[in-house]
Amino acid sequence: MSSSASRVERAQRAVDQGKTANVAEVVADAEVATAAPLGYLACHHCTAVWQGVEPGEPCGRCGTHLHRRKPDSLKRTWALLIAACIMYVPANLLPVMVTTSLLGSQQDTILSGIIYFWVTGAYGLAAIIFVASFLVPLFKLTALILLAWLAQRHSSWRQRERATLYRVLEVIGRWSMLDVFVVALLAGLVRIQGFAEVTAGVGIGAFGAVVVLTMMASISFDPRLTWDPPPERRPAPNPRKTFA
């Protein structure tokens, strides 16, 4: 807190001396005081807040072990992201739906389905599938990799925007399952033995794995790591112990 205040004071003096034109530019770079440097720990089970306690100690209200951050958050996130990246390749190359009729059998991947709807004039449906089944998983993978990499480096680059990006990922992540729902619906409805039959292909399993793995990676990632300074710059926690 004192460090941030001193930066604001120096910024104001710089403006008065004509060295800079905007106090906000300097204030934006000031360190943000968070609960962790101040020695506060919150119980994830009963939401009680403690000060001056050590990670691993039991909560005085419910007995749950307290943690400053999610245990092994980055390790779990990286493991899940690597697995999701591996599964992303067969999810787009292998067929997600197999249609069998009197005219023969046809296998469709996600991209071939998008191309088919676009060529036949169903531009809206092609755009929806392209965004929900191709762009959203790719965007989520890229964004989570960026967030995890910057958090691991204790980077202070655009912290507010990164926090906003994580909230956006939580909102759009649920729409990644559109292809899985469509194939499951068609497989249940189109069952005319000898005439037409729709079954799920191997690719739908890989695609579902990508969605689940990215969801688990998003849950495993602790967004509070975005605000953590490097270890050498963290102040010692206040030894005073209180309960709220």
Low-confidence stretches: 1-5, 23-30, 240-244
Average predicted local confidence, pLDDT: 76
* Global structural class: alpha+beta
Strand segment count: 7
In N-to-C order, the SSE pattern is HHEEHEEHHHHEEHE
Helix fraction bin: 40-55%
Description:
With 244 residues, this protein is an alpha+beta fold. The chain contains eight helices and seven strands, in the order H-H-E-E-H-E-E-H-H-H-H-E-E-H-E. The chain has helices at residues 2-16, 23-27, 73-93, 110-119, 123-152, 159-172, 178-189, 202-220; strands at residues 40-42, 49-51, 97-101, 104-108, 191-192, 196-200, 242-243. It has a four-stranded antiparallel sheet. A three-stranded antiparallel sheet has the order 1-2-7, with no helix packed on it. Helix 3 runs antiparallel to helix 5 (123-152), helix 3 packs antiparallel against helix 8 and helix 5 crosses helix 8 (202-220). The protein is elongated, with a radius of gyration of 25 Å. Residues 1-5, 23-30 and 240-244 have low confidence and may be disordered.
Summarize the structure.
The chain is α+β, with helices and mostly antiparallel strands and 244 residues long.
